[in-house]
Specification:
Helix content is 25%, strand content 32%. A hairpin with a 6-residue loop joins strand 9 and strand 10.
């Protein structure tokens, strides 16, 4: 009996010492530091309205807006928009901004998402041999006729549709979907996407 009590008394202080030592060691650091890349900052590559996006053409070798789509609300946007190219988005959407069509007829009271397709070049989002999708972002705003209004510039969620180290560009689709509920427009109403801003971190 005495031997068991003795062991218990010795083990308990050792256990406490081990825990305290662990806490002291963990709090002593050093901590990893999260710092902004030296010399890098966000630069606006393109900014304009839905109508201006329809006329936008990045040109050879340039980063830029490719198209803006009004897409039927999707319950799995992370997958849907990652898999879609310009052609499949065009085929499935209610409409998209083009030089010939800057007005899109949308079924009233039907949920939809707004999708902005972009490409980024090596100057803006490639580091060494790797493309960095987090170096691109799109922000958007709308007037009050969109339900609910996108008040002020709101950052869209980006998904990569093609990222290959041998490609000249990184392609992404950015979407906004009212936190998963979609947007709507009332019957006989006209809503306007009044600002789209595409930026890169370099």
């Amino acid at each position: 009996m005495k031997e068991k009590k003795f062991r218990a008394k010795i083990l308990r202080p050792l256990l406490i010492i081990g825990v305290v030592t662990g806490i002291i060691w963990a709090s002593a650091g050093p901590y990893p530091k999260l710092v902004q890349d030296e010399g890098k900052s966000w630069h606006v590559l393109w900014e304009g309205s839905f109508v201006e996006a329809a006329e936008a053409n990045p040109g050879a070798g340039a980063s830029g807006i490719l198209e803006v789509f009004i897409y039927p609300h999707d319950g799995d946007p992370g997958t849907t928009y990652a898999e879609n190219t310009s052609a499949t988005l065009e085929a499935a959407s209610y409409g998209y901004a083009s030089a010939d069509d800057t007005e899109i007829d949308i079924p009233h009271s039907t949920e939809f998402d707004i999708v902005v397709r972009v490409r980024g070049n090596a100057t803006h989002c490639k580091r060494d041999t790797d493309w960095h999708h987090t170096d691109l972002k799109v922000e958007i705003s709308s007037d009050a006729n969109l339900d609910p209004q996108i008040s002020g510039l709101n950052e869209m969620t980006g998904v990569v549709s093609r990222n290959d180290s041998g490609d000249p560009y990184l392609w992404m689709n950015f979407y906004i979907n009212n936190a998963g509920s979609g947007y709507t427009i009332a019957k006989s109403s006209t809503a306007e996407i009044d600002n789209i801003k595409f930026s890169a971190y370099y």
